Amino acid sequence: MYEKERLNDKTKGILIAIFLGELGGYRFYRHQYFLGIIYLFTCGLFMLGYLYDIYAALTYDCNKYSTKENSTVIDTIHTKVVGVSFECDHGTFDDRQEAIEALSYRRKKNALALQYFEYKGEPAFYVVMNSDNTDIGCLKANLSSELTRKYSDCTFVISDYEITGGEDRRKFGCNITIQVLRSKNQINY
Predict the structure, then answer these.
(1) Quick check: 114 and 126 in contact, CB under 8 A?
(2) Residue 25 to residue 21: CA distance in whole angstroms
(3) Is 168 left (phi over 0), alpha (psi -120 to 50) or beta?
């Protein structure tokens, strides 16, 4: 199968930190807008913040920030993945139905993740397989907007999934459970 290449989150972060870090690019990428503006007007906090951001990007571990030990679950959302009958936009599979079928055979914890992107200027999320970044569909537009508006400082983790259909020539589907996590040091008591 033809494998479409796509940069993962960490690689994008590293490139943004190196090439746009002194202008606050890495801080904007991590949705830290206030710091991004400060970096923009202070040349990356006089280059010290810029160097720190390169180090932070190189050592960034997305799993570290999405564990329950470091975070508190503030909301749980059950939803259906949409767009499961289209072709994959990235990953090792060409067809989302093939990807979901393969996923149904290997039931594994942390198999899926959300990946942010913008569609026609609006926030959106792919549902991707962690193993190879293949997208199996997307979140509904209104849910994507709500997540980015209501939980902009949070991490989203797919804690469970259920594959539906597939028998009697029915198309596969996928239902997911999203946990909204907030870092314990961000929680106001």
Answers:
(1) yes
(2) 5
(3) left
3-state secondary structure of 162: strand
54-86 pLDDT per residue, tens: 988 887 655 444 455 567 899 999 999 999 999
Helix, strand or coil for residue 147?
A: helix
Beta strands in the chain (DSSP E): 71-80, 112-119, 122-129, 135-138, 155-164, 173-183
- Model pTM? 0.62
The 10 Å Cβ neighbour count of residue 34 is 9
176, β-bridge pairs: 79, 161
- Are the beta carbons of 5 and 89 closer than 8 angstroms? no
Query: Radius of gyration (Cα) for the chain, nearest Å?
Result: 18
